[in-house]
Amino acid sequence: IKIVTTHQLQEMKSKGEKISMLTAYDYSMAKIIDQSGVDVILVGDSASNVMAGNETTLPITLDHMIWHATSVVKAVKRALVVVDVPFGSYQGSSSEALRSCIRIMKESGGHAVKMEGGVEIKESISRVLSAGIPVMGHLGLTPQSIYKFGTYTVRAKEEAEANKLIEDAKALQELGCFAIVLEKIPSKLAKKVSESISIPTIGIGAGPNTDGQVLVVHDMLGITQDFKPRFLRQYADLNKIMHEAFENYVSDIKSQKFPNEKESY
Ligand code: KIV
Ligand code: NA
């Protein structure tokens, strides 16, 4: 197969080459991201926030995720496409988890799935893995559990939670996950986790010592306005560029500068 494989990600960790990952939810954006050489494209359930305007990731459904993933897969030639399994479609029942993941793989053509949680969801993870579906783990600030945490602040600052996170990471590796996202945890802990497992870790707000990095594409492009955590580096100010373009468009219409003769038939 021509795409980046989970085995190549493993090799990248062994060689010390950092892994790049970005989210995408639609065809046009995914095409630009893929052509830019990003290794992994995550069809994140953050689509619930950035695409649908919800406050949390909880409302997005399996059908919605499959819709986004299908659009992304059509655009991608090189990157590994990982699809988030949405809240309510895998926890608590390994049969339901398997059914959800099979639907994602069959209907969207995605290459792997991501599920949030550690030992709590081990049955679901192993059932999905046993069907030959690669699974990416996700530990730390797992947004599907936001009402349990009650806050979006850094996780695992206390020793008990940090120790559980290390145990969970080891358990996910034992089960056979090919990588783990570490979200919003202290750098020191992320370093310790990354050194104590052989599968790659991909960090977001987890410092420089993970094996790769991921950001939400609308955040790093500066399209999102009201979300500026310290871990977020803005690589563009698309909000400003888009505002200017839209305002110029309106103004050209009002002043009858658009369309001109060359732009007419
Ligand atoms: O849904 C998402 O965007 C994610 C990343 C932040 C890891 O899960
Ligand atoms: Na997610």
Automatic annotation (TrEMBL):
Keyword field contains Metal-binding: yes
Cellular compartment(s): Cytoplasm
Lineage top rank: taxon: Bacteria
EC category name: transferase
Pfam families registered for this protein in UniProt: Pantoate_transf
GO CC aspect terms: cytoplasm
Reactions catalysed, as given in the entry: (6R)-5,10-methylene-5,6,7,8-tetrahydrofolate + 3-methyl-2-oxobutanoate + H2O = 2-dehydropantoate + (6S)-5,6,7,8-tetrahydrofolate
Annotated metabolic or biological route of this protein: Cofactor biosynthesis; (R)-pantothenate biosynthesis; (R)-pantoate from 3-methyl-2-oxobutanoate: step 1/2
Family membership noted in the UniProt record: Belongs to the PanB family.
Keyword Transferase: yes
NCBIfam families cross-referenced by the UniProt entry: panB (TIGR00222), PRK00311.1 (NF001452)
Cofactors required: Mg(2+)
Cofactor binding note of this UniProt entry: Binds 1 Mg(2+) ion per subunit.
SUBUNIT field: Homodecamer; pentamer of dimers.
Predominant location: cytoplasm
Gene Ontology molecular-function annotations: 3-methyl-2-oxobutanoate hydroxymethyltransferase activity; magnesium ion binding; methyltransferase activity
Protein name in UniProt: 3-methyl-2-oxobutanoate hydroxymethyltransferase
Gene3D superfamilies: Phosphoenolpyruvate-binding domains
Residues bound to 3-methyl-2-oxobutanoate: 45-46, 84, 114
